[in-house]
Design goal:
It is globular, with a radius of gyration of 18 Å. The N and C termini lie far apart (40 Å). With 267 residues, the protein is an alpha/beta fold. A seven-stranded parallel sheet has the order 3-2-1-4-5-6-7, sandwiched between helices. The protein has a single domain, classed as 3-Layer(aba) Sandwich (Rossmann fold), CATH 3.40.50.720. Helix 1 packs across helix 8 and helix 4 runs parallel beside helix 5. The structure holds nicotinamide-adenine-dinucleotide. The site of nicotinamide-adenine-dinucleotide (NAD) has 27 residues, from helix 1 and helix 6.
Length: 267
């Protein structure tokens, strides 16, 4: 328990504020997760790349002197209490990032897809947080960073499962913040708009089909209509925000949701 009368020290401008910390990033082999792994490693953390892309995870882990955990987080046998207790052993920073997308109107949305998205993007983060907290409480330090989305705060048509999962993740993050506060554990969301990653590239054809427009118009007519700044977010920009939230400088930031959406949610 922290002594509320004692001032905390200025952590200064250390180049490696995460030295000695172990960070696990789900979906760390691609896109935002890979950028987060690179940035956290560059700030001194030992990174664990958790991803179903076994080769991609191993390759990036090798490059960053980290480790990899080849795991399909949708496989119930991979997320048993025992498996997660072992995976979370010594983890100081947990980045819940793995995610998928499905574009379809509700009336034709396959319930199996809805469940899959809710499992991967809401239930699995809960299970990982649940497994990580005992060790974080014991050490008196922890950072949970949930890669949410502007869709954790705003809705778009044809994304019922994704928007539902991200709104749920916002709730999980806030409850974690309230329970973790007295143990030195913070929990926050980052909320990007559209980021230049394979997830978005794959979405362009589906968005064109469901909206009945050419693929070339998807960026200007669908993805960037709400943003004041008309460009995609870059993965390294999201990673920089995650690294700050993981750092000692952000010790008083918890239960928050930081947008990086070019002004979309200012409307
Ligand atoms: P991406 O497709 O580039 O990467 C996702 C990674 O997750 C991949 O490496 C994939 O192998 C892994 N993954 C998927 N299913 C998995 C499973 N069952 N088990 C283990 N690993 C699995 O995606 P991205 O764009 O980098 O998205 C990362 C996160 O950022 C997601 O949660 C997404 O919702 C969120 N996000 C993305 C954007 C965007 O525009 N790209 C915007 C806001 C939020």
């Amino acid at each position: 328990m922290t002594d509320i009368l004692q001032p905390t020290t200025d952590t200064g401008l250390s180049q490696t504020p995460l030295a000695g910390k172990r960070a696990l990033i789900t979906g760390g082999a691609s896109g935002i997760g890979a950028a987060v792994a690179r940035t956290l490693a560059s700030r001194g953390a030992h990174v664990v790349i958790a991803d179903m892309d076994q080769d991609g995870a191993a390759e990036l882990a090798g490059e960053l002197n980290g480790s990899s955990w080849a795991v399909n987080l949708l496989d119930p046998d991979a997320v048993t209490d025992r498996a997660l207790a072992s995976a979370m052993d010594g983890v100081d920073i947990l980045v819940n990032n793995a995610g998928i997308q499905k574009i379809s109107p509700i009336e034709s949305f396959d319930p199996a897809d809805f469940r899959r998205i809710l499992t991967l993007m809401l239930e699995v983060p809960f299970l990982l947080v649940r497994a990580a907290l005992p060790g974080m409480y014991a050490s008196g330090f922890g950072r949970i960073i949930n890669v949410s989305s502007v869709h954790g705060l705003r809705a778009s048509p044809f994304k019922s499962a994704y928007v539902t999962a991200k709104h749920g993740l916002e709730g999980l993050s806030k409850v974690t913040a309230l329970e973790g506060g007295e143990h030195g554990v913070t929990s926050n969301c980052v909320n990007p708009g559209y980021v230049r990653t394979p997830l978005v590239e794959k979405q362009i054809a589906d968005q064109a089909a469901v909206h009945g427009i050419p693929e070339a118009d998807v960026l200007s007519k669908i993805m960037l209509t709400e943003s004041a700044i008309k460009r995609l977010v870059e993965p390294h920009e999201v990673a920089s925000l995650v690294a700050w939230l993981a750092s000692p400088d952000a010790a008083m930031v918890t239960g928050a949701s930081y947008t990086m959406d070019g002004g979309w949610s200012a409307r």
